[in-house]
Amino acid sequence: MRRPDAVTTPRTSDGPSSGASPSPTLGAGQERLLAEQETGRLLAEQEARRAAERAAQRMAGLQRITAALADALTSEAVAEVVIDQGIAAAGAYAGTIAVAAGDVLECLAAVGYPEAAVERYRELPVTADLPLAEAMRTGAPLWLRSREELCARYPAFAARDLTVTTASLCCVPLRVQDRPIGVLGLSFADPRPFDQEEREFLVAMSRQCAQAIERARLHEERAAIIERERRVALENARLYREAYEADRRKDEFIAMLSHELRNPLAPITTGLELLRMNMSDRGERDDQQILATLERQVKTIVRLVDDLLDVSRITRGKIALKRERLELGAVIEAAVESARPLLQQRGHALSVSVEPAVFVHGDRVRLEQVVVNLLNNAIKYTNPGGHVSLACEAKGGEAWLQVVDTGVGIPAELLPHVFEPFMQARRSLDRSQGGLGVGLTLVKRLAELHGGRVEARSAGAGEGTAISVWLPLAGAAEEAPAPRPSEAPSGGGAALRVLLVDDNVDAADGLRRILSLHGHTVAMAHDGPAAIEAARAGRPELILLDIGLPGMDGYEVVRRLRAAPELQRAYIAAVSGYGQDQDRRRSREAGFDAHLTKPVASDQLLELVARASRPG
């Protein structure tokens, strides 16, 4: 069988025919162009990906630096963070950060450089011919893209310190508010073109570093200020404690001094009382004059001690005023009588002008003390035969009291300080006027306790002095009851059995003599155990008990006496050199019926005896 003939398909040189129009034929040049375009497109995509990766890496690096800087509180810590993180983020092998300190750059951190070079450039002048210094001087970044460029620009530096590793280098100023504060330097092991993106990254890193360093500096400055303030506060507290302790010791010394001075004054005062009693019938003129002199001097000492102690009390807030509605005229009258002996001794003339019915709300004893101190001050500082005047009237809702003298006056430079404690001691080396210089201090502080004020005026040395006191007037009040006349001291009444207890034998003996002269039976003891034994044996009706006894003090003695049934009705009085309010309060709490402050005058003693002899 014959096979059919095969069908033959016509062909062209480019391939089988499809029945359509034939495609145009590309030449070899066109194919190469297409291949190059495709390659370029692929390379561009690769470069874009690499650029994006670099940008992401740099952004991540900046973020790591930012995170690490959050814990950096000092400039050195900031520099270490930026160098450690920045070298890796920038692809460098070494780096340094230096900050300006006047005319030099100080290295804060350096990594990757030889130790000798780091030490050599630990501090370098801003004027030096070095990359870091130039960037600092100009305030512009320095981009050295190759080793050849670096050697050409800084031959001396390159010859001495350029390591074989360095192929390129950049120095970027650290700027804060357009002000360079330092430089960031990075060294690279390969040549770098430092394109725009890299430069922007390095500038951004330097900006981060600059801001962090400035923030750290502010933190350090604040910390330094806080530390200084803390030290100042501690020092002030220490000084305050020392001053307070010194003031406390001073007050304790004054209180102790007053107590110790009162102890010898007690027998002296009592002895003078006895002398006056014994001499009253004889009346020898010389003896009377001597006795009067001794009494004046003892009163002066007592007043000085009391003034000194009162200043200390007021300073510590230990004085409580016993206020009542007072007519100042009566207070002034009593004060004038107290000052009259000194006035007569100095031969001064005194004029007094007092407006009637000027009332204040005050402490009678303390206001009399104010007037007495003003008068005594005027009398002392006026030459014999001078004139002292005292005036009092109501002025504009205040009571005005003024003492004027024709005395030595006060120099202008001392006038503002005249009311300061111990001012008198600083006036001159002349101690002929005596005194401790606390009288006017006491006047001022007592006036202020009454809500008043004081003023001193003087035209200068030799021109006399005028001291004024203003006190608030008392408002309208109900008719004040007439003051009850004080009970006259008396030793009358039934004779008492009296026990005197004092370790100062002279003081006890003086009081014994006065009591014996008035018919009382007196026993004595000089320590606590002996006092308890004598009291139980003799059952006295009045016990005068010194508080400052050796061994067992008066507080313990009175507690034991009060515990004895046979002594329940005894009248027990404390006799002590301590006379402050807290001392009297403590005496009451311990069981004393009364508290007498040494030296005890005979009228005080006899008044106490009268109270003790009353029924109940």
TrEMBL record:
Q: Organism source for this protein? A: Sorangium cellulosum
* Low complexity compositional bias, start-end: 12-29
The EC number(s) attached to this protein equal 2.7.13.3
Q: What is the uppermost EC class here?
A: transferase
Q: Which UniProt keywords apply?
A: Kinase, Membrane, Phosphoprotein, Transferase, Two-component regulatory system
Tell me the ranges covered by the Response regulatory domain, including all copies. Answer: 497-613
Q: Where is this region: Disordered?
A: 1-29
4-aspartylphosphate PTM positions read: 546
Q: Name one GO molecular function term.
A: phosphorelay sensor kinase activity
Domain Histidine kinase as annotated: residue spans: 256-475
For this entry, the protein name equals histidine kinase
Q: Which reaction does it catalyse?
A: ATP + protein L-histidine = ADP + protein N-phospho-L-histidine
InterPro entries linked: CheY-like_superfamily, GAF, GAF-like_dom_sf, HATPase_C_sf, HATPase_dom, His_kinase_dom, HisK_dim/P_dom, HisK_dim/P_sf
Does the record carry Phosphoprotein as a key word? Answer: yes
